[in-house]
């Protein structure tokens, strides 16, 4: 079977061979694991850095982990999306700093640019200008767990991304168990993924990202499709991770203001810009001034 896709993530997870097209020519064939490795370990970030450097005459933020307390630094980030000749601005000079080891919530109405900003931070979109620094490696968890949870058992799914590392079976098993423990699913290791609730599947997706020991977790509206019980199960899992691992930063995109109580800090976006950053209490006061029900 031959399939065409512009979605690098899905292609590299489902296909056995992934020969990418570049400049109207096939690049030599890659196995699925090599394609996933190439996608996750640098194509997008290298392209992003090169374009940022070109846009800023070679300037690029380089922050020492010991010299700066921030996991994410964004300065004047700009992005246009759309067909040639009809591009529209989606990010309009974003400025953002996220403290290392925090759970930082990114709030705002639909269409304000929250998820787009998250994808730029994860290297999934290349901006037109500005400066970006993020701690690496990073892990991205999508809104719909069906886009990431694809293996038949929980253990196999969490271990999926570890296939590109030269790990022993014992090391893989240890990494899987540790990741599942962090999301409170250690007893689900051999459960079939199709038997899980939406919240449990979302936590499996988070565990898959955690197994690769990221320094930055990028979480895109994880509670959108979940009932109330599953929503708070996922939120408690992420809150526990941020509290237990002071060098791991989590950025949580949401439009649910009630989730603020789990955050260390929050930013609010409007029309492609960050217009507020502060503590959860300050964020609630800001939202009340906007007339939002908090």
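-> sequence recovered:
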């Amino acid at each position: 079977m031959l399939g065409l896709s512009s979605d690098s993530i899905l292609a590299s997870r489902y296909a056995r061979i992934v020969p990418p097209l570049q400049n109207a020519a096939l690049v030599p064939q890659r196995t699925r694991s090599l394609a996933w490795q190439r996608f996750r370990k640098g194509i997008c970030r290298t392209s992003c850095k090169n374009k940022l450097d070109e846009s800023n005459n070679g300037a690029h933020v380089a922050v020492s982990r010991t010299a700066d307390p921030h996991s994410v630094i964004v300065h004047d980030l700009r992005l246009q999306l759309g067909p040639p000749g009809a591009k529209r601005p989606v990010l309009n000079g974003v400025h953002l700093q996220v403290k290392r080891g925090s759970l930082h919530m990114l709030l705002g109405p639909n269409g304000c640019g929250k998820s787009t900003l998250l994808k730029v931070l994860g290297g999934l979109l290349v901006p037109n200008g500005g400066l970006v620094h993020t701690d690496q490696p990073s892990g991205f968890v999508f809104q719909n767990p069906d886009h990431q949870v694809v293996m038949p058992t929980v253990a196999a799914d969490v271990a999926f991304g570890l296939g590109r590392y030269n790990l022993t079976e014992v090391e893989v098993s240890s990494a899987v168990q540790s990741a599942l423990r962090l999301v409170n699913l250690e007893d689900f290791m051999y459960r079939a993924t199709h038997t899980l609730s939406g919240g449990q599947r979302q936590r499996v997706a988070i565990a898959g990202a955690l197994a690769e020991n990221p320094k930055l977790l990028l979480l895109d509206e994880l509670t959108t499709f979940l009932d109330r019980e599953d929503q708070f199960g996922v939120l408690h899992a992420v809150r526990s991770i941020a509290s237990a691992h002071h060098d791991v930063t989590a950025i949580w995109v949401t439009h649910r203001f009630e989730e603020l109580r789990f955050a260390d800090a929050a930013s609010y976006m409007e029309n492609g810009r960050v217009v507020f950053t502060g503590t959860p209490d300050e964020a609630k006061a800001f939202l009340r001034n906007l007339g939002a029900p908090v």
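The longest strand covers residues 70-81.
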